[in-house]
Write a structure and sequence with these properties.
The structure is a single chain. The chain folds into two domains: about 100 residues, Alpha-Beta Plaits (2-Layer Sandwich), CATH 3.30.70.100; about 100 residues, 2-Layer Sandwich (Alpha-Beta Plaits), CATH 3.30.70.100. It is α+β, with helices and mostly antiparallel strands and about 210 residues long. The N and C termini lie close together (about 5 Å).
């Protein structure tokens, strides 16, 4: 895990992928660690990276940066790095899904001692216009009145991914408890109010654990 412990992240990158059938999981982990050290660490503004896995055997890169310029530099120089080429050679290209988001929170930092990341992606309910301010307000209420009541919750934020796209990310102490809390959303009023902002058919979410 790369963690420069910056005090304010403004951008998140989340890239999901699967390995090729003839590639061992250990190869992906080793290549990711080398990529982390040789490519990501020197980039100014990139402060955090973690390779995640899920219970389906998939992988994801979770990256945080201070600003969009850092992400643009990362994208522009990615293919020129040998460590990037190595990682790319291990992956099924058809499985790669790349997302980025502007973080709608002040002074967001990555929490310490988490072992689960719940990442959800959704689109605004098309029946009404939804501002970033409203999404952020409902997110803060959700944190204060629901997530904050659980010791398992280590961090939470919402982000803007596209014109009508948003994300919600929760850091938890354990995968089991994070799943349990998430599946209790519909029973809590602040959670229902937050979820009502989005098209329920657009929800995509999963639970991930750190690998490297």
């Amino acid at each position: 895990m790369l963690n420069k412990k910056f005090e304010n992240y403004g951008v998140m990158g989340f890239v999901e992928f699967e390995k090729l059938d003839n590639v061992a999981c250990e190869e992906v982990i080793e290549a990711s660690l080398n990529w982390q050290r040789e490519f990501l660490k020197p980039i100014e503004g990139i402060g955090f990276h973690c390779l995640l896995g899920n219970l389906k055997g998939g992988f994801a890169d979770l990256i945080f940066g201070t600003n969009k310029a850092a992400f643009e530099h990362m994208s522009e120089t990615f293919l020129s790095a040998a460590s990037s080429q190595k990682v790319k050679s291990l992956l099924d290209p058809q499985s790669i899904v790349m997302r980025s988001a502007s973080i709608l929170a002040d002074n967001f930092t990555v929490p310490d001692e988490f072992s689960c990341v719940e990442a959800g992606f959704m689109r605004a309910n098309k029946e009404e216009e939804i501002s970033e301010a409203v999404v952020r307000e409902k997110s803060i209420n959700l944190e204060k009145e629901f997530l904050g009541a659980y010791a398992n919750t280590k961090g939470h934020f919402v982000g803007k991914t596209a014109e009508d796209g948003f994300c919600e990310v929760t850091f938890g102490q354990t995968l089991g408890q994070t799943r349990e809390i998430c599946f209790g959303y519909e029973a809590a009023r602040p959670c229902r109010e937050f979820l009502s902002l989005f098209d329920e058919k657009s929800f995509e979410f999963d639970f991930w654990y750190p690998l490297a």
